[in-house]
């Protein structure tokens, strides 16, 4: 996956452009908020058009499942995970 960073606010927000989609690439925003001693992670994908979203198909959902699986592994053992 090719991505270009757009915004980083430590401990709060990450924003990047998914460049593999070319002009139809989405912009991903991830925010982190503390809620009752836990972290709420909210992920949003913004596509430039409905057509771009439709063209992404289910591949994006499959990739997100893999990404969250890797995040789970990292959070369990950050010192032994490779990023």
Task: Write structural notes for this entry.
The protein is of the alpha+beta class and 83 residues long. The protein has one domain (3-76): Alpha-D-Glucose-1,6-Bisphosphate, Chain A, domain 4. It is built from two helices and four strands, in the order ββββαα. A four-stranded antiparallel beta sheet has the order 1-2-3-4, with no helix packed on it. β3 (27-35) and β4 (38-46) form a beta hairpin. The longest helix has 18 residues, at 59-76. It is globular. The two termini are 14 Å apart. The model has no long low-confidence stretch (mean pLDDT 82).
Compact summary:
This protein is α+β, with helices and mostly antiparallel strands and 83 residues long. It has a single domain (3-76), classed as Alpha-D-Glucose-1,6-Bisphosphate, Chain A, domain 4, CATH 3.30.530.20. It has helices at residues 50-56, 59-76; strands at residues 3-9, 13-18, 27-35, 38-46.
Q: Can you tell me the CATH topology?
A: Alpha-D-Glucose-1,6-Bisphosphate, Chain A, domain 4
The span between the termini is 14 Å
Are there runs of 5+ residues with pLDDT below 50, and where? none
Identify the strand order in the major beta sheet.
1-2-3-4
